[in-house]
Design goal:
Blueprint (H helix, E strand, L loop, with lengths): L4 H17 L2 H9 L2 E4 L4 H8 L11 E4 L17 E5 H8 L3 H19 L4 H6 L4
Parallel strand pairs: 1-3
Antiparallel strand pairs: 2-3
Helix pairs in contact: 1-5, 4-5
Length: about 130
């Protein structure tokens, strides 16, 4: 079920503010890695990640697709399009509808997925407070 337009607009405005607040080096990276925003993860995404996931599907706030920068090789074959997905519904639920908490969760989710792009795993992110 789609999110109400007001929640969607509020989320998107806050995401824009978070994106504008990122350091220039991170902003430059995002010019190379598209950020896709959807209301919820699709059934296909949930099936693909459910095998080894420690996160409940209703809590999946974001996802990075691609090969982390430090793991790339000339032997990888056809390149995979790097991209980051951010899911409004889980982030809105996690924030409890509190605007300041919503902005914080958007920021954490975005940095979490960018860190995956650089090759950081869940354990490293947890140690940094972005788990």
């Amino acid at each position: 079920m789609p999110l109400p337009t007001t929640e969607r607009k509020m989320f998107d405005r806050l995401l824009e503010k978070v994106l504008k607040s990122l350091p220039p080096a991170v902003s430059e990276l995002l010019e190379q890695v598209p950020v896709i925003v959807d209301d919820e993860p699709t059934e296909q995404i949930l099936r693909e990640i459910s095998a080894g996931a420690s996160t409940s599907p209703s809590e999946l706030c974001g996802l990075h697709w691609g090969i982390p920068l430090g793991s790339r090789s000339m032997l990888d074959g056809e390149p995979v399009l790097d991209r980051i997905a951010i899911f409004r519904g889980p982030i809105l639920r996690l924030s409890g509808g509190v605007r300041s908490e919503l902005r914080k969760q958007i920021h954490i989710t975005l940095l979490h997925e960018i860190a995956h792009h650089f090759g950081m795993d869940e354990e490293e992110l947890e140690m940094m407070g972005y788990g």
